[in-house]
Amino acid sequence: MIQVIVCALLTCIATIGAAFGMMTYNASGSEGGAEEKKVSLTSAKSRMISVPIISDNKVQGYVVARFEYVADADLLKASKVPPESVLADEAFKIIYGSAGRDFRIAKKTDVEEVTASVREGVNKRWAAPVLKDVMIDSWSFLRNEEIRRNHEQQKR
Question: Sorting pLDDT into bands at 50, 70 and 90, what band is 16?
């Protein structure tokens, strides 16, 4: 009689252990499945844009910028609009609309806000999180005097 009880007890322990092991295995397997479905990313550079900075009803100079972006490749393939055009348009609107900022003495926070705003604006226009990150490839502010001086030097 004791042998039957011990055998039943061992069977119960083995069954509970197997059930626990399968639950642990399935839990780790579902996380692995989520990792297998990775988003394919691509990166590219936008074209150079120049944005006039107007202050006191005069053009003070131009912000000349070029952006690099990281995007979801599958969503880009599905889109019929080139991402560079949307990014350039959004960046122009944000920089031009930032009348309160003085880009002649741009701060790190100003530039970070611009890139975050560009990413959010493009994703909002696409109604999907297409852009994962927007970075600045090049950024400079050219005063009108510098542009005139360079133009005159090129004429000579």
Answer: confident
